[in-house]
Design goal:
GO molecular function, one term: protein serine/threonine kinase activity
Radius of gyration: 30 Å
Family: Belongs to the protein kinase superfamily. Ser/Thr protein kinase family.
EC number: 2.7.11.1
Pfam families: B_lectin, Pkinase, S_locus_glycop
Strand content: 25-35%
CATH superfamily of the largest domain: Transferase(Phosphotransferase) domain 1
Number of helices: 13
Number of strands: 44
Catalytic activity: L-seryl-[protein] + ATP = O-phospho-L-seryl-[protein] + ADP + H(+); L-threonyl-[protein] + ATP = O-phospho-L-threonyl-[protein] + ADP + H(+)
Length: 711
């Protein structure tokens, strides 16, 4: 009887710890996927991850608050943004002996704490209906020692305040995150500013003293530069000033509407609302022009608001971190391609650096007035010569000025010579600069000309870390030469299928898969014209010195305007990577690249071709066709047998399963069922989860399993 009572008592304790309540008491702890849930069900507190990882590929976990009733995961507050947790199983949220709320690692190390001056150790933590997490006395709910509303991250909720408290010295401001998945604080902030003259305004700041937007002074009913907040039936903004301090708050009239204000990673202050039955957030912004945000595109870039906000590198510069740009973090900007000789002059004699004129721009900030310019960049008008020596920020495409940018002679030359002259220059420069290049020769007038035009028209106008760079080209008669950057580690197929190739570990294979997806996504959705590669296969994936993949060989590539959804083209030779619609002869879309990519993913997993000469049958199933094995293994929950034996089992099983699922999505028979390459990137970065998918009908027919589902 005593034993049964102990078992029941233990069972009730476990239920008490893991039930979704709104309060955490001294005898409880929050671990794993446990959460506190506000009494109205709108908000949840617990541990979550955004898809970001540490350098050793371990996940980052954050303690935070999010909207529980919104199907699209949306966090509103993060406790440990600067100190993410690697191992979820080793951490827990508890109330410490001094009454503070703490996150403990391995029972002893404090990863985060409220650090409140509590007057009692009998406290509780409660998640309120407005999304505010409060630490209060267990016996007196009005005695609050700490609250999350006093320490906002990048988000303000209805009922929270932005401003200051004179008695405590507390300043509440919003600070942007590093990017869309990394919760580290970054450069932009949104705060209340005031002075002794009584002028109070809302400002947007950059790092941390450069103001780039102001609401104007409070005039009693509204801030001067945002009068539209008056008379709104759904949104109101209010300012309060007392001896204790000053603050602003916003309110939404409709109680069924969820809302949040956020200092976005782009530097835009946005108000987002979620209406009942919505599929996504509706966004309202204070700044109409993205280019008006200080350093919006980072250094050595040009911002253009027409037709839509975009960032591009200055001539002679390349994106410093394409991965960061994909996450909307452009603070790194662009880096110079060729170092300066540092002996430049206006005339540009000999090897001296030269100046390249940029017309119709708005000039960057922080100019100095000098007599003559010799380095960096300059602009001249009747008022004299203005010069910039450091990073160039805030150049906009619209304007009436000419900016002269200092470039190495080789960079400046490329804008004044034809392509044939350029290729000769590159070849000669490679005998003097010891730069290794790869030269591709296309023979035959008819076919060679076709491939030549396809490669030049595609690779000649694109630039991405996962696409091979076309350095130059020349043509004479029926001879065509293309000069590319040299890839020391050869092509992917040599490492996957050849016995003398290097065995790529799983981490490298996963990064290669992600890199190919990034490059393909750029071709499909980020170029002025949509580019379909039409020949994605391991032989056309080149690897640089650090095994970064670069999609190559654009001889089959097709370009078409974005208002066209299909293009007609002839079939290529490598049939094992062909999508069904291409085989049937119908017009194709970018989804044919998605299909080919899915087949390549399967070969990255197995380290062998998807089909082989050896054939075996088991229960009527053709086992030689690897996609069938993948589909069956996902159904049976046994993916370990799919992985290349040369890896000796040293793989991340979760990533293997994710790649298998993505591959099966990509090779769906119907093109509309396949994801876009942008969605594939999100899947592989763990930003989005891969849902349940049907087995492709072709594989169903081969496997003899109709209506199968891959979980």
């Amino acid at each position: 009887m005593v034993l049964w009572l102990l078992v029941i008592s233990l069972h009730l304790h476990i239920l008490q710890c893991h039930a979704a309540t709104d309060t955490l008491s001294l005898s409880q702890e929050l671990t794993g996927h446990d959460k506190l849930l506000s009494s109205n069900g709108r908000f949840a507190l617990g541990f979550f991850q955004t898809g970001s990882k540490f350098s050793d590929n371990t996940p980052k976990w954050y303690l935070g608050i999010w909207f529980h009733t919104v199907p699209k995961f949306t966090s509103v507050w993060v406790a440990n943004g600067e100190n993410p947790i690697a191992n979820l199983s080793s951490c827990k949220l508890v109330l410490s002996h001094d009454g503070n709320l703490v996150v403990l690692l391995e029972e002893t190390t404090t990863a985060w704490s409220t650090k409140a001056n509590t007057t009692t150790n009998t406290t509780v933590a409660t998640l309120l209906d407005d999304g505010n997490l409060v630490l209060r006395s267990a016996s007196n709910s009005s005695n609050v020692f700490w609250q999350s509303f006093d320490y906002p991250t990048d988000t303000i909720l209805q009922g929270a305040k932005i401003g200051w408290n004179n008695s405590t010295g507390l300043i509440r401001r919003l600070v942007s995150r590093k990017n869309t998945i990394d919760q580290t604080t970054d450069m932009y902030s949104w705060e209340l500013s005031g002075n002794n003259g009584g002028h109070t305004t809302i400002v947007s700041m950059f790092n941390p003293s450069q103001q780039y937007w102001s609401s104007g002074d409070w005039g009693g009913r509204y801030f001067g530069n945002i009068p539209e907040t008056v008379g709104q039936t759904w949104l109101s903004l209010d300012f309060t000033s007392t001896e204790e301090g000053a603050y602003i708050q916003y309110a939404i009239e409709d109680p069924t509407v969820l809302s949040r204000g956020i200092m976005d990673v782009s530097g835009q202050m946005k108000v987002l609302v979620w209406f009942e039955g919505s599929q996504d957030w509706t966004i309202y912004t204070a700044l109409k022009s993205q280019c008006d945000i200080y350093a919006s595109c980072g250094p050595f870039t040009v911002c253009n608001d027409v037709p839509s906000p975009s960032c591009s590198c200055l001539k002679g510069y390349s994106i410093r971190s394409p991965q960061d740009w994909e996450l909307d973090d452009r603070t790194g900007g662009c880096a110079r391609n060729t170092p300066l000789y540092c002996s430049a002059n206006i005339t540009g004699v000999g090897k001296a650096d030269k100046f390249y004129p940029m017309n119709s721009v708005q000039l960057p900030v922080d100019a100095k007035n000098v007599g003559i310019a010799t380095t960096a960049a300059y602009s001249y008008d009747q008022g004299g010569c203005f010069i910039w020596h450091d990073k160039l920020l805030n150049i906009q495409q619209q304007g009436n000025n000419i900016l002269h940018l200092c470039l190495a002679a080789k960079e400046e030359q490329s804008s004044n010579t034809n392509r044939r002259g350029l290729i000769i220059g590159v070849a000669i420069g490679s005998l003097t600069d010891s730069t290794t290049i790869a030269v591709k020769r296309l023979d035959g007038f008819r076919q060679g000309e076709k491939q030549f035009r396809a490669e030049v028209s595609s690779t000649g106008v694109i630039q991405h870390v996962n696409l091979v760079i076309l350095i130059g080209f020349c043509c004479q008669g029926d001879k065509r030469l293309l000069v590319y950057e040299y890839m020391p580690n050869g092509s992917l197929d040599s490492h996957l299928f050849q016995s003398n190739g290097m065995v790529l570990d799983w981490t490298t294979r996963y990064q290669i898969a992600l890199g190919i997806a990034r490059g393909s996504s750029y071709l499909h959705s980020s170029c002025r014209a949509c580019i379909i590669h039409c020949d994605i296969k391991p032989e056309n994936i080149l690897l640089d010195g650090s095994f970064t993949p670069k999609v190559a060989d654009f001889g089959m590539a097709k370009l078409f305007r974005r208002d066209f959804s299909h293009v007609v083209t002839t079939m290529r030779e490598t049939i094992r990577y062909l999508a069904p619609e291409w085989i049937s002869g119908t017009p194709i879309t970018s989804k044919v690249d998605v299909y080919s990519y899915g087949m390549v993913l399967l070969e990255i997993i197995s380290g062998s071709r998807n089909s082989s000469k050896q054939s075996s049958y088991e229960d009527g199933v053709h086992e030689a066709y690897f996609p069938v094995r993948v589909a069956r293994s996902l159904l049976d929950g046994d993916i370990a047998t799919l992985v290349d034996a040369k890896l000796l089992g040293e793989v991340n099983q979760e990533e293997v399963e994710r790649v298998c699922k993505v591959a099966c999505w990509c090779i769906q028979d119907v093109e509309f069922d396949r994801p876009t390459m942008s969605e594939v990137v999100q899947f592989l970065k763990c930003v989005s989860e891969v849902e349940t998918l049907p087995m492709p009908r072709l594989l169903q027919a081969i496997a003899g399993q109709p209506n199968s589902k891959i979980m």
